[in-house]
Amino acid sequence: MRTPAPVLRQPASTRMYDIVLALFCSLLLVSNIGATKLIAFGPDLSVLGFPVLPIVTDGGAFLFPLTYILGDLLAEVYGMRLARRAILLGFAIALLASLTFLVIDSAPAAATFDQTAAWHAVLGFVPRIVAASLCGFLAGQFLNAYVVVRLRDRARPGSLWWRLVSSTLVGELADTTIFCSIAFGGLIGPGTLLNYIVVGYVWKVGVEVVMLPVTLRVIPVVRRYEGYPVPGEPLSVEPAFDAT
């Protein structure tokens, strides 16, 4: 009697998905608010009329690159369907936040509240930031997930690093260009805007590359925890975990 071939383990549930999803959406919201402040590092310096310094970025640059690392994890481990769900949920939550801030900004202030101008200057700008973020976010994250999944389907052992970097190069280019153009187009000069786009793109890709050793270790751990096979490891016929 022939021994049955090992059956690919499928998880009874996605235990880590909710945690990754919550982090993904939280980082997006915090980044959208942080992006209302432009940040400049360095003195004024131009080369052939192009402003090289100061380096211009925004407050969202601190955490937003991490959404792409989590997006890589979602697409690589859970596939396009669940990655799409996370992207659309992040979109919906960011849109809700923008509409909420818009309503609050339009509501009459109490007589004892004397910070209306300050509140409007920061959070009153959030709707434009969120509009830019949503457009860039949808384009960038869907491209990022698409590239990860398509390369994964043609993957060879040891190619995870290439999938992650390639998807970030494509997704961040679309995201950064769209976001910067919509958020600050017409508010800053063309040279400063180009500086902003280039610095933002290089920074976000750089964060992905620096974090790559961590990402390469976390993704197999999550795959193993969820019961998905890890490339290079033998398949198991044991259940991934107790469904109860």
Explained architecture:
The protein has 6 helices and 2 strands. α5 packs antiparallel against α6. It has one domain: Arp2/3 complex 21 kDa subunit ARPC3 (Orthogonal Bundle). The model is unreliable at 3-12 and 235-244 (pLDDT under 50). The protein has 244 residues and is mainly alpha-helical. It has helices at 17-34, 64-106, 116-123, 126-153, 160-184, 190-226; strands at 38-47, 50-58. A two-stranded antiparallel sheet has the order 1-2.
Give the helices and strands, then pairings.
Elements: H1 17-34, E1 38-47, E2 50-58, H2 64-106, H3 116-123, H4 126-153, H5 160-184, H6 190-226
Antiparallel strand pairs: 1-2
Feature tags:
8% strand; 244 residues; two-stranded antiparallel sheet; mainly alpha; Arp2/3 complex 21 kDa subunit ARPC3; disordered N terminus
Here the CATH topology equals Arp2/3 complex 21 kDa subunit ARPC3
Q: What is the makeup of the main sheet? A: 2 strands, antiparallel
Count of extended strands: 2
Mean pLDDT: 80
How much of the residues is beta strand, in percent?
5-15%
Number of helical runs? 6
Q: Quickly give the structural class.
A: mainly alpha
User: What are the low-pLDDT stretches, counting only 5+ consecutive residues below 50?
Assistant: 3-12, 235-244
